[in-house]
Write a structure and sequence with these properties.
By secondary structure, the protein is of the alpha/beta class. The strands form three sheets. It has an eight-stranded parallel beta barrel with strand order 1-4-5-6-9-10-11-15, surrounded by eight helices. It has a single domain (6-257, 326-372), classed as TIM Barrel, CATH 3.20.20. Strand 10 (210-214), helix 7 and strand 11 form a beta-alpha-beta unit. The protein has twelve helices and 15 strands. Helix content is 40%, strand content 18%. It is globular and about 60 Å long. InterPro entries: Luciferase-like_dom, Luciferase-like_sf, SsuD_RutA_monooxygenase.
């Protein structure tokens, strides 16, 4: 039997349009350019609805994204941890936005107050406008060097050490989490991390607990997993693996394909061309790997959007992040997830459009399929 899977969801902390063509999840569409679909702002009420729905249907956790386009992940997580009981929170962060000590202090407090329901998704990012907002003018090599130093200090702090280090990016003297009333530390938050570049592979091998990849065809994903296992083994370590994927799950494959194609209904050629130019201009190696799979994808040729069994590329024509999504019946999606588990995947982060409704489709359709097959990890 395949290993057990933990399923997580992605929280739309920048709000979302209910229409994919108008941005979908976490892509802001201003009122002047909206057409007919409503925009759901990231209100505490809406985000709480999603979190409670995830908890109710058996998801293990939720990824809370980071970036200047969305609400602060620490603030959101703090609010929703108070409204939930079992749901875990994967708090995303950029190393350029805070010192390792500030992050460790914040994470330890949140871990203690939540009863150990916090893990960290460390996102190196890439050069560009987002980096410049924080005064980060380094190239990819410099940014990953920052992440490397950051994670080294972070782990030492979580281990209870008193840290003094003079690095290129971080100069720390006498930093410790064990002071005042805190004589012991709560469970160390796991570090989740993604990246397909050579720089990322090195950092993952040295520091991370869970390596995240965007969904790729199984053979391509297997090669990446083997490479990361080798990088970890060279450092005397082991890794767990996870994927980030879009999803559209329905009662039947035909209904899923119909609803997936409806996401692209009416898309204009200039819209597709503009999105592709923007996506191909990214410096993300993972983005480049995904977009390479869609070189021949055309909404007017629906068959060209299928990259593999239940692997649909329509999401990646317009949206950043994973190029592929899992599209099919609840049973078929469960089958594909179990095949990924056989490759070594045991953490799955999904998202769909609209967020709340798709979370219910998956929670009420796919999770029971996995549970019946004994492949769904129990919520702690």
């Amino acid at each position: 039997m395949s290993s057990q899977l933990s399923l997580h969801w992605y929280l739309p902390t920048a709000g979302e349009s209910t229409a994919f063509l108008e941005g979908g999840t976490n892509v802001h569409v201003d009122a002047a350019t909206r057409r007919s679909a409503p925009f759901r702002p990231p209100s505490l009420s809406y985000l709480t609805q999603i979190a409670l729905s995830l908890e109710e249907t058996g998801f293990r956790g939720v990824l809370v994204p980071t970036g200047s386009y969305c609400e602060d992940p620490w603030v959101v997580s703090s609010s929703l941890l108070a409204a939930t009981r079992d749901l875990q929170f994967l708090v995303a962060l950029h190393p350029r936005t805070a010192t390792p000590f500030a992050t460790a202090h914040r994470a330890t407090s949140l871990q203690a107050l939540s009863g150990g329901r916090v893990n960290l998704n460390v996102v190196t990012g890439e050069p560009g406008a987002e980096a410049l907002r924080h005064g980060d003018r380094g190239d990819k090599a410099d940014q990953y060097a920052r992440t490397d130093e950051y994670l080294d200090v972070l782990h030492r702090l979580f281990a209870g050490e008193t840290v003094t280090v003079a690095g290129h990016h971080h100069d720390v003297e006498g930093a410790t989490l064990l002071s005042g009333y805190r004589r012991t530390l709560p469970r160390r938050p796991e570090v989740w991390f993604g990246g397909s570049s050579d720089f990322a592979v090195g950092v993952a091998g040295r520091h991370v607990d869970v390596y995240l990849s965007w969904l790729e065809p199984p053979a391509q994903l297997a090669g990446k997993i083997d490479r990361l296992r080798g990088a970890a083994a060279a450092n005397g370590r082991t890794l767990r693996f996870g994927i980030r994927s879009w999803v559209l799950s329905r009662e039947t494959d035909a209904a899923a394909e119909r609803d997936a194609l409806a996401h692209l209904d009416g898309v204009r050629p200039d819209h597709l061309a503009s999105a592709r130019t923007q996506l191909l201009g990214r410096q993300s190696v993972g983005q480049q790997r995904g977009q390479a799979l869609l070189a021949d994808a055309d909404p007017h040729r629906p068959e060209s959007l299928w990259i593999g069994e239940n692997l649909w590329g329509g999401f990646g024509l317009l949206a950043g992040g994973p190029a592929l999504g899992l599209v099919g019946s609840h049973a078929a999606i469960a089958d594909r997830l179990l095949e990924l588990a056989d490759l070594g995947i045991d953490e799955v982060i999904l998202s769909g459009f609209p967020n709340l409704e798709e979370a219910r489709w998956v929670g009420e359709g796919v999770l029971p399929q996995l549970s019946r097959r004994g492949a769904l990890a129990r919520v702690a």
